[in-house]
Amino acid sequence: MTLIKWAAQYKVNIEEIDQQHVKLIDLVNKLYTALKNGGAKAILEGILTEMMDYAEYHFDAEETLFGLHLYPETMHHIQEHNIFKKIVISLKEKHENEDYSTSMETMFFLREWLTKHILEEDQKYVPFFEGKGVC
Ligand SMILES: [Fe+2]
Ligand SMILES: [Fe+2]
Hints:
By secondary structure, the chain is an all-alpha fold. Helix content is 79%, strand content 0%. The longest helix is centred in the last third of the chain and has 32 residues, at 100-131. Bound molecules: fe (ii) ion (2 copies). InterPro entries: Haemerythrin_Fe_BS (IPR016131), Hemerythrin (IPR050669), Hemerythrin-like (IPR012312), Hemerythrin-like_sf (IPR035938), Hemerythrin_metal-bd (IPR012827). Pfam families: Hemerythrin.
């Protein structure tokens, strides 16, 4: 089941990064499906852990590219990534102690944050990397 549909507007034209964004969106859709099917707490926690680990891997990939090419918005972009990590950790802790509504809150947070971040913050580096011949 699909909560977020991958679309051309999300593309940053860096193959590796686009594939990672597809995978992150996939994980949110997986969480959505698990919730719709009344998935067990353990399944939901597994997806959240996978999401956190993969988001960290993806952020590292972007931040490495920023470092390599001296992207001028690096500090601000890293701050955004760090805010996300903090929120997901606190939602995960909350989820361990609470119920279904926390899972819904988490799912909607992930949808809002990811789509907004890819469409706004990530899109900002596209012209910069195009200029560097990376895209
Ligand atoms: Fe990204
Ligand atoms: Fe990013």
